[in-house]
Design goal:
The chain has about 325 residues and is mostly beta strands. The chain folds into two domains: about 5-70 and about 85-110 and about 235-310; about 115-230, no CATH class. The protein contains three helices and 23 strands. It has helices at about 5-10, 100-110, 190-195, and strands spanning about 20-25, 55-65, 70-75, 80-85, 90-95, 110-115, 120, 125, 130, 140, 155-160, 165-170, 175, 195-205, 205-210, 225-235, 240-250, 255-265, 270-280, 280-290, 295, 305, 305-310. Strands 6, 9, 10, 11, 14, 15 and 16 form a seven-stranded antiparallel beta sheet that branches. Strands 1-2-5-20-18-17 form a six-stranded antiparallel barrel. Strands 3-4 form a two-stranded antiparallel sheet. The chain starts with a helix and ends in an 8-residue tail after the last strand.
Amino acid sequence: MSAQSTIRALMQPVSDGVRAYFAPVNRSTETPTAFDAAAAGWFNLANPPAPWIDAGWVDNFARTAQTKVEALRIGPEAAVNRQLRSNRGAAVELDFREWGKLQMALACGAQHMNVLGEAGTPPQEIAAVPLQAGSTAQQLMLGAAAAGFAVGDMVAVDVDYQSQSGYVGTGIAGAYIPSPPPITYQADYIRRITFNVGRVVAVANQSLQLDAPLLGGVPASTASVQKVAAFLDREGGNFFQEWSALFVLPETSAGRIYFYYPRLQGAGSPREDAVKLADAWRATTLHAAFEAIACQDAIDGETIYCSRVYVPPALAAVY
């Protein structure tokens, strides 16, 4: 094989799948999480830089360009004078292989909830425990109340509902409360919808150690901790999930490809698919559909919906 053929072979990307990463959008200011394309070659897929969250491998990844290109015709012969773009937009569909709070929230597209734990006979909701000073995003100081938790427990960490309106949830919007509220919300409502959840891996020194830092960051000093038994989503509702998204085709050979969506909103209803593993075994996947929301590119002020980035390997031809 000639040296030229070897170089051109490096221009044919090959990948073994698609990995998905999501980061919060500031819903109040409509500000997405930026993706630094200049650092794309150093984006650690196994340990993505904050605030990007690894949502795992996805199947049936499909991008759809909704933008139409139309011709502007003038004169008696209706000659093409120029082209223009109309009905701009973009969409994405995929199947999450993994089930977790983030994947379920993205797939349902609407409000996602934590099912708070119960105990006793008859079962009653386990009361929230106030945080104490010195808590971090991964270590929750609870004093003597820490003894009421065990390794393996899931917990939600957030403030009480006290007549707040607008987007609520520490760090990441989990719901929107209109003003005036349509009902009287319980004090634990924000812990029901918060993304500040974690798994307890150690109970020591009157504190809980979590498996990873809380997605919403360090909880407020007025936050409390409650046990979580399960995750729940529903068909319907008025809330739309919105996240920045990054889909990556890792470089099995010939470079890495990124698809960056500054703002994606859920555009589908809860749906599951089955993937055959062997004989009668089936893996259940979460189907998700998204609509891209317009965003202004800070580079030149253009209205965009997504961008494509290619990081070629060393020694590959440029064109």
